[in-house]
Amino acid sequence: MAESLIGELPRGWSEASLADVAELTAGTSTTTSEDGSTGVAKPKNLIRGRIAGPPDRIEDNEAQRLSRYRLVAGDIVCVRTGGLGRHALVTSEQHGWVCGTGLIRVRPRATVDRHYLSGYLSHPTVLDWLKRNSVRSPIPSISTTVLGTLPVALPPPDTQRSIGHALHTLDEKIAAHQSIARTTSELRDVLLPLLLDGSVIPPGHG
Questions:
Q1: What are 119-152's pLDDT values in tens digits?
Q2: What is the pLDDT of residues 80-106, one digit of tens each?
């Protein structure tokens, strides 16, 4: 078996650098406009492995000027300053947004499954590699060039897709449970004062 960053690889697996299996582009600075129609992904929008929260927006003419930084569904955006290891898959909801400063856009090549690569970037050993290869300063950071040297374990394409599908399914279940938990918590906050002042009495306990 071949040795890799994450340990011995099964027969038929290989290892390549991230730059060999994806195109990496550092995000760009933008000028926010309240009237803008194009969203900008920033580190603040990466929440629990997803792109969420209201984005900053820019004008259409600026978005056109920054076309090389646009996002497409299937891209992965990674934090490059502070909170290293945080990343998220771009979905159809963010298609056309601009990759803002503080992020690195990772665009997997056609031979790499995006869900597999996103899952790989969450591996504990990969997170440790990011920490060890970051610039040591009060706010840790990593450059596009250094991130591109990250060793990536590559199963055969069919295995990548199987692993990626399994990880994506689990991520969707996690997101669904988190949504239920948030909704339940909000409901409790609304009901608590009504229950405690007698405005609402639970059925069967009147």
A1: 999 999 999 999 999 998 888 999 999 999 999 9
A2: 998 999 999 999 999 999 999 999 999
Among residues 2, 7, 26, 1, the alpha carbon closest in space to that of 129 is found at: 7
Examine residue 152 and state whether it is found in any structural domain, yes or no: yes
Residue-wise pLDDT for 147-158, tens only, equals: 999 999 999 999
User: Is residue 43 helix, strand or coil?
Assistant: helix
The pair of three-digit structure tokens given for residue 20, joined into one six-digit string: 């060999």
Asked if residue 163 is part of any domain, the answer here is no
Q: Output the pLDDT for position 1.
A: 60
Domain count, the chain: 1
CA–CA dist 71, 103 (Å, integer): 12
Q: How far apart are CA 86 and CA 76, in angstroms?
A: 10
In a domain, 185, yes or no: no
Q: Is residue 10 classed as helix, strand or coil in its secondary structure?
A: coil
Q: Show the domain range for 129.
A: 2-156
Backbone angles phi, psi at 23, to 5 degrees: -95, 125
CA-to-CA distance for 35 and 18, rounded, in angstroms? Answer: 37
Distances in Å between the alpha carbon of 118 and those of 21, 78, 108, 114, 126?
13, 10, 10, 6, 11
